[in-house]
Amino acid sequence: xTIIEVARSAGVSTATAGRVLGGYGYASSDIKDRVxxxxxxxxxxxxxxxxSLITGKTQTIGVxxxxxxxxxxxxxxxxxxxxxxxxxxxxxxxNSDEEPALEREAVQLLLEKQVDGLxxxxxxxxxxxxxxxxxxxxxxxxxxxxxxxxLAADSVSVDNLGAARHxxxxxxxxxxxxxxxxxxxxxxxxxxxxxxxQAPRLISDANxxxxxxxxxxxxxxxxxxxxxxxxxxxxxxxxxxxxxxAKEATLALLQGExxxxxxxxxxxLMSLGALDAVTDLGLSIPGxxxxxxxxDLDWMKFMRPGISAVAQPVYDVGRAAAECVLARINGxxxxxxxxxxxxxxxxxxxxxxxxxxx
Amino acid sequence: xTIIEVARSAGVSTATAGRVLGGYGYASSDIKDRVxxxxxxxxxxxxxxxxSLITGKTQTIGVxxxxxxxxxxxxxxxxxxxxxxxxxxxxxxxNSDEEPALEREAVQLLLEKQVDGLxxxxxxxxxxxxxxxxxxxxxxxxxxxxxxxxLAADSVSVDNLGAARHxxxxxxxxxxxxxxxxxxxxxxxxxxxxxxxQAPRLISDANxxxxxxxxxxxxxxxxxxxxxxxxxxxxxxxxxxxxxxAKEATLALLQGExxxxxxxxxxxLMSLGALDAVTDLGLSIPGxxxxxxxxDLDWMKFMRPGISAVAQPVYDVGRAAAECVLARINGxxxxxxxxxxxxxxxxxxxxxxxxxxx
DNA sequence: CTGAAAGCGCTTACAG
DNA sequence: CTGAAAGCGCTTACAG
Lengths: 358, 358
Known about the structure:
The structure is a homodimer of 358-residue chains.
Chain A: H1 3-10, H2 14-22, H3 29-42, H4 48-55, E1 60-65, H5 71-86, E2 90-95, H6 100-112, E3 117-120, H7 129-136, E4 141-144, E5 154-158, H8 160-173, E6 179-183, H9 192-202, H10 211-226, E7 235-237, H11 243-255, E8 262-265, H12 268-281, E9 290-295, E10 308-313, H13 317-329, E11 338-341, E12 343-347
Parallel strand pairs in A: 1-2, 1-3, 3-4, 4-5, 5-11, 6-7, 6-8, 8-9, 9-10
Antiparallel strand pairs in A: 10-12
Helix pairs in contact in A: 1-2, 1-3, 5-13, 8-10, 11-12
Chain B binds a DNA duplex (16 and 16 nucleotides) through helix 2 and helix 4.
């Protein structure tokens, strides 16, 4: 069923049929009716491929997520989908699994499919030639969650640094001074001590770090602002995005001597592991240990009440990113935008002062 | 950068350049090298739209999920994405929000974009003309989670009925006889009593019911098999997919007289609401109330240990659906397949016998 | 307002 | 093995 049959059946030229069905150009209302009826009768369905080949626009957004299965990306995708649907756009989704090679392949596929714009969570902020190429070709790219270094593309992210700093400030305000942190902190810094040295320089460009490092920066900044010295033994990395690894890290921290009076877990999965460890050790919360579990999503609602801190961005990351990329696609926007979504911190439950005042 | 420039630069015809770059047809290795070098030098990237227009294949799967943000669909999408990537396919994702109108629009969009096949969770199993049309046109359609009535299309779903029945059997085995059930049970049956009357007939075609009704059927069947009469007052519907509604339903059930000795919650969100209610009432588990929380995903891992039943399908729903649709696309498969994935039940924690033997 | 013609970037018979 | 020509299903100038 092509436009040719419709045109023939309606007794008009294909150009005219196209104008009616495609909604461009003029046509008398008489002809409009005839064409529409013919299309209806024949069960005509436009082939967007053909149109796209001509117009150079597919009305499609390509997304490279880290892992759609994770609550964060699922939520982001939801927002992107909503905005896209409103604009008649489709969304092609791919996973990078945080593998640079897979990310490159995904971007390649999406570009070959002629998407109009790209929303991507760069998995290696340091080496993203494919993204630089796209941006250099003036192709609409919007980054989420973190940004590639030196990439002149919009980015949308949560205020990880600010939210984490706020969490620590809350613990300081309750009188805690020895606050442990459990965070992923996998790549790219091997050595924590050297990261601490670089920290002051990194703050200005924090969003080119993976989120867990941004959150560590917030932890450091809170210490700095409060004049509390950072004890490196309190900073524990799981080294991977896994609850089991977080549990090990937490056990090691809490079983060591000089146990902290409070603990900050830098995301949902870390929190699960840490909670498991705390339960195993039989520590009471907040009596023996104050706990602030952080996440940028409210998936902590699945957990025991009374111990979570949820940083809610004032605006949906997915929606913001989709609006950003659509603006670029429509050529509405020129200045580069780094959108760091302000966050409000929802604290549930109470923070007790340390058992032994510090 | 089109194939024309590459051909010119390599000094061959576009047909030959196409054969080399597209990987079809013959070419001498000398020419292959020249063309590839030219393509590389010019930064040529194939336009899949043009190819698809000719071949009639886009190497794209269209997905209509209920809500990508929910853990179930997020997981399904992950599986689909993995299989698709392996085959060089892209995935276009849409949400129906369980609205028939949105589902129709989504299917329309996907067909216009010329996807090669469709994976869809039909939101109205009774009225799916658009799906019947697609199937009648011999278009590859695979259903997930539930199936549209009378639709001659493959379907992949979890064994909801069997898993729920098993949960109830476990409670019966521990000595319980009065087992409450909290389930969504929103549409399409208004009257529980009349559903019970129809139940025997519905069992043979259970997968055309929304999952919560299938789970209720399992509950009923367990009672029937054990010779325990069903007390309708123990069957509570939240009437919507919301933890708050489930909490209300649970409170009403547990505060009434003749409280059940055990409770079965038919999915994760229902479980959250029910647990809230149980906590509010200060009931001890399993001392005063035995609880079996069911879900087809392990998101119960976020909850307190000791009370969950997770039915794990032996195979990933998303992967199975994607493999199914790819088989159809490739014309590999003729007989209709209703894949009901067998499930193994992971019970965590213990079920106590009823306080007062029944 | 309508139509004949060209063309988007490829692939596909068909010759040679 | 290679090329000239036609064509996928539309849209876009350009005439009229």
